[in-house]
Amino acid sequence: MQDRETWTTGSLVWHLALRWRAGVDRAIAHLGLTHAQYSVLASLHGLVSVGERPSQRELATHTGLQRIYISKLVRALEKGGFVVSERDDRDGRAVRLDLSDEGGRVIVLAKGIVRELDAENTRVLTEAGGRELAELHRALGALLDATEAGDE
């Protein structure tokens, strides 16, 4: 086992993110999704569920991903039958996105699987009543807020 006490916080987060992503990839592969596709589809599901039909640009802003990456992921999701797109009536350059029936069905299943995986991955932090998990959420949120301020 490596001496992680000497690792930077960034290195710990990076290694954990790699493992987490690989775990999600394995857990939802049978649904025809990758972790990246899941993230975009879950975000789209959230927006659609409140009545929005975002453009690719709006989805990119919402997810924090680059527009070119969103474009590639949306194309793959559309090809897989999970997403439908349509030109915006008011802006011919914009494409509005929606979930297909299959996309809606699959994202509900995928979200359940990812929630179970999340609970399994964080079980070590909930064994003492969940205080550690709540503190981790608070600390990661603070780090995200700090890095967002640097992006502006």
From TrEMBL:
Signal peptide: none annotated. The keyword Secreted does not apply. It comes from Rhodococcus baikonurensis. This is MarR family winged helix-turn-helix transcriptional regulator. Residues 1-145 form the HTH marR-type domain. SUPFAM superfamilies: Winged helix' DNA-binding domain. SMART domains: HTH_MARR. Keywords: DNA-binding, Transcription, Transcription regulation.
